[in-house]
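Hey, can you fold this one?
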Amino acid sequence: MVVFSFYRFYLSIAAGFLSYFLVLPSIWFSVAIAIGVRVFIGAIEKMMRIIAVDRCFKLHEYRFKQLLGPYGIRMINKAEKSFALRKSLYEVF
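Sure. Predicted structure:
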């Protein structure tokens, strides 16, 4: 994700520039390609974030239950249904 954080704008502009010269010499087509690449990179980043949250949640689930007892068990059970709560627990882990 660090690679995409700074360069995603430049990658989308480069994709639009290359599509203008290699595929179809149209400004609107190259703008659409640049927007499409930007959306695609954003979707990949979102999937990577969801996978990281789920992986960390599953890794620390047992320890969280052991440390906090009944409260931890209730929080983990609620977090299995709510992604926002799972993400906040991910930040704690």
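The radius of gyration is 20 Å. Let me know if you want another pass with a different chain boundary.
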